[in-house]
Amino acid sequence: MDRSRPGALNAWRRWAGNGVPARAGQAVLLLPVIFLALFFLYPLLAILDYSLRPAGVVDLSGFARIITSAYYRDTVVFTIGQAALSTLFTLALALPGAYVFVRYDFPGRDTLLALSAVPFVLPTVVVAAAFSALIGERGLVNSLLMSVLHLADAPLRLERTLAIILIVHVFYNYAVALRLITAYWANQSPRMEEAARLLGCAGWRLWWEIRLPLLRPALLAAAVLVFIFTFTSFGVVLILGGVRFATLEVQIYYQALNLFDLPVAAALALVQMALMFGLLLVYTRLQRQMSVDWQSVQRVARAPRRRTEKLFLAGNLLLMAGLLFAPPLALLLRSLTFASDRPTLAYYLLLTQNPRDSILFVPPLYAIGNSLVFALVTLLLALVLGVLTAILIERRQRWLRWLDALFMLPLVTSAVTLGFGYLIALDEPPLALRASPVIIPIAHTLVALPFVVRSLLPALRAIPPTLAPAAVTLGAAPWQVWRFIRLPLLSRSLVVGATFAFTVSMGEFGASLFIARPDTPTLPVVIFRLLGQPGADNYGQALALSVLLMLVCSLSFIIIERSRSAGVGEF
Amino acid sequence: MLSLHQVEHHYNGVPVLQAIDLALAAGEIMCLLGPSGCGKTTLLRVIAGLEEGSGGDVRLEGQSLAAVPAHQRGFGLMFQDYALFPHLTVAQNVAFGLRMQRLPAAQQPERIQAVLRLVGLAGFDGRDISTLSGGEKQRVALARSLAPQPRLLMLDEPLGALDALLRERLVVELRDIIRAAGLTALYVTHDRQEAFAIADRIAIMNDGRMEQLDTPEGLYMQPRTAFVARFLGLNNVLPVQALTPQGARTAAGTFAVAGAPPLVLLHPDAITLDEDGPLPGTVTERTFQGDHYRMQVQTDAGALRFRLSRAGVVPLVGQSVRLRCDRVIGLSG
Asked: How many CB atoms lie within 10 A of CB A45?
């Protein structure tokens, strides 16, 4: 071999680099593509097809009904409106928060910033249950108010209002906006602001003339991201909003599963996909603007000095801590004290039973078993497919460039749309998987795959390309290069990816609601059903199950934070 | 005009500035010269009001500035990285200070044009900041600090980001612009050539203290401390072994000096070759520098550096020579 020629070296690397003989290797690498085609593109295309030809012939009556009906128009208006309000409130709270993190040094600063990511890993049903336990009619705040003020009824009635939806959306997205803005801001030279001050700029003019314009790219990106997240909000609106409020997501679910109006559901799903695609394009554009290189990076954080500074800092920290910790704590507390005045495990014990009048076919505890099995299968599937996908993308051949974007698509495709697609597409031969429990881990794998790939790619790219040839010249067979060189170097990322996959599967709600069979319900689906039922026992069990799910997810969070070295993981 | 009285600054308990006294006359250009980390930039920031001093007082025309926030001091500061506003054009950057002063909009264009002409950027009004070269950015930053007609112009290593050739040319230009505008200026740099080129007086700083304040010529001819001498490139510093009635005794001989200095400087300008000189040695370096040779001679007292004119005889490396020094200055430690 002529090592002086880069072409020859590249050819050699291509062959030895993947650790598998060329032809067999290509075939294995195609697996993720096939998987994506079958279980992602095919169902989405089925929705498209169904929305245009519900009964085999072209029939646009679904669209016609959406356009002409004020009811569906209201759904669209509400979806956009609540997303806009959620975005506004989130940014309004996150901006001063980011200021605090950029400007002030205080004990526990880095820990708090890390903990702010906890809502990321909490499933919607858990968050809904937590907020119900905190500020719902049966929640902690109300029960305290009732005992203190000697009231017979709950004074705070937030359930089934727009307010509680917005509050939960802020809870979910506060950290998203906070981290984005903080990261951007901290990388800006503080000199620009000082220059403005010396030129006579102070107070609100400093915000208006300098800070906000300079933060514009980060603010816009955060706004679009939060808007995307809240635009597709499903579980929160479904559980806490009641029948009065429906986003497009919720409407698709109602139409498909409650009213069996599949043409309208398909048409709504199509509208939703089109809007999401547009938003995504905007976001990618903005993200490119964000990578502006600033001249000097200096930490300007210092301890707060004046009284007003201290008050401002304290106010923000209080808000943040309240937002982050109060709901989970209320959930835990309420699951132990809802039954009586003294802490009791009554609801946890109830989980093992299957009373005759239950709406479930199985004791709730069985759902934990189901979810664990599904999550483990998802973990395996996502890890194998994720590694293959990462290898495929990492080769950076020109015709593979679009793959990176393609494998990110499930991230922005709503789970409800996916579940609905499965409902339509996988119901009949050749892929009649609707009746099989396998369909759940397949759906979860699709949702988890982008996370796994994003965790693996940076680590894979960080492996020096000369390591494999070095190992081969020392006598390592291709599989040994993987076994002794690459996998050990990837181990941390593999742990992060696996944990992500597991967590996503444990908490996935939207798709599962569509495809989970009554006899093998997942944990989030059971929590949802229990929350929807009257009676203290059902509510208590929902809280208890939510606590268990929350503990699993918190554990995952710790594993991810511990395994993730600084700078690894591109999100 | 501006005076500093015992200014102190501590950062996390570590003193950054200690007992700084300084007085600037109106129309004067003063340089703060020192190695990085000596506190010169911090001093500038304290004067600007960007840092609160931990002690002492900054006064303008006799009035204390302690209660005056940065945005009301009316000082101009040109930052090392220029800190231009990337969301504004060249003209908008220059206009910023005028807008903050609430100068009537009708008067702004004229002032902006005048300042842009002064710095040689006429016609750059609408240009985007990101399209400018380093030298152009530097001029915009200068124009921006000049436009509001500051009572004091401060420049923090304004040429630091530029290459050496450009720097040499721009420093003269900068001096002419400041003079033309009739401004009082405080100029921070670590480059002695730059300081010599621009300053009426230079304050040399070291480790948070003021070492010496004098004109460039005064500093060069009469350095008072070993630090100042070495920082100005005057390296022939010898320890004094004993003080005798004849003067300070060193390994290179006994020299008459005032006081009781622990060190003496053999000023390189006064070192000459002399067959009857008291200092024997061997040439160890002979570097052609154009109009002169840089020489180093190893003597019993250590290596001595000096220059030799091209006109005379220049000994080769390895040759034995004898030296004499007619200017010996006592230094404090």
From this structure: 13
Question: What is the C-alpha separation between B310 and B290, in angstroms, rounded?
Answer: 8
> Is the domain of B99 the same as that of B131?
yes
Same domain, A397 and A514: yes
Question: A18: pLDDT confidence band, cut at 50, 70 and 90?
Answer: very low
Residues 269 through 308 of chain A touching chain B, CB cutoff 8 Å:
292, 295-296
Band the pLDDT of B203: cuts 50, 70, 90. very high
List the domain range (segments joined by +) for residue B207: 2-225
Query: Is residue A329 exposed (0-12), middle (13-18) or buried (19+ Cβ within 10 Å)?
Result: middle
Cα–Cα separations (whole angstroms), residue B300 to A365, B271, B280, B326: 92, 16, 8, 18
Q: What average pLDDT does range A354-374 have in this prediction? A: 77
Q: Give yes or no for a contact between B40 and B33, defined as CB atoms under 8 angstroms apart.
A: yes
For residue range B263-283, what is the model confidence (pLDDT) as tens digits? Answer: 999 999 999 999 998 899 999
Maximal CA-CA distance, chain A: 89
Residue found under tokens 């497009």: A248
Selected for mutation to probe chain B from A188, A189, A198, A216 (highest B CB count within 10 Å) is A198
Interface confidence (ipTM) of the complex: 0.82
Compute the distance between CA of residue A549 and CA of residue A534 in angstroms, rounded to an integer. Answer: 22
Peptide bond before residue A6 is cis, with ω within 30 degrees of 0:
no
- Alpha carbon of B144: minimum distance to chain A alpha carbons (Å): 9
The residue behind tokens 């499903």 is A234
DSSP element (H, E) containing B14: strand B14-24
Res. A478: pLDDT tops 70: yes
Structure tokens at B133: 């070269």
DSSP state of A440: H
One-letter identity of residue B303: A
Nearest-angstrom CA–CA distance, A42 and A31: 15
With an 8 Å Cβ cutoff, are B148 and A216 in contact?
no
Question: How many domains are contained in chain B?
Answer: 2
Tokens of A234: 């499903």
Range of the domain at A568: 26-56+338-456+491-571
What distance in Å separates the CA atoms of residue B30 and residue A215, rounded to the nearest whole number? 37
A209 to B96: CB separation less than 8 angstroms, yes or no: yes
Provide the mean pLDDT of chain A.
Answer: 85
Same domain, B96 and B219: yes
Same-domain check for residues B310 and B219: no
> CB distance B48–A205 less than 8 Å?
no
SS3 assignment, position A491: helix
As given in the structure block, the two tokens for residue A429 are 């031969």
Report the distance separating Cα A164 and Cα A173, nearest Å.
Answer: 14
Nearest to B76 among A189, A198, A214 (CB): A198
Cβ contact, residue pair B87, A189, below 8 Å: no
**Is the distance from CB of A541 to CB of A350 less than 8 angstroms?**
yes
Q: What was the pLDDT predicted at A291? A: 60
Shared-domain flag, residues B140 and B176: yes
Pick from A526, A528, A543, A547: nearest CA to A364? A526
Contact B76 A192 (CB under 8 A): no
Q: What CA–CA distance (Å, rounded) separates A303 from A363? A: 54
The pLDDT > 70 percentage for chain A reads 90
- Cα–Cα distance, A428 to B320 (Å, whole number): 104
Q: Across the interface, do A198 and B48 touch by the CB < 8 Å criterion?
A: yes
Chain A residues in contact with B69 (beta carbon < 8 A): 197, 202
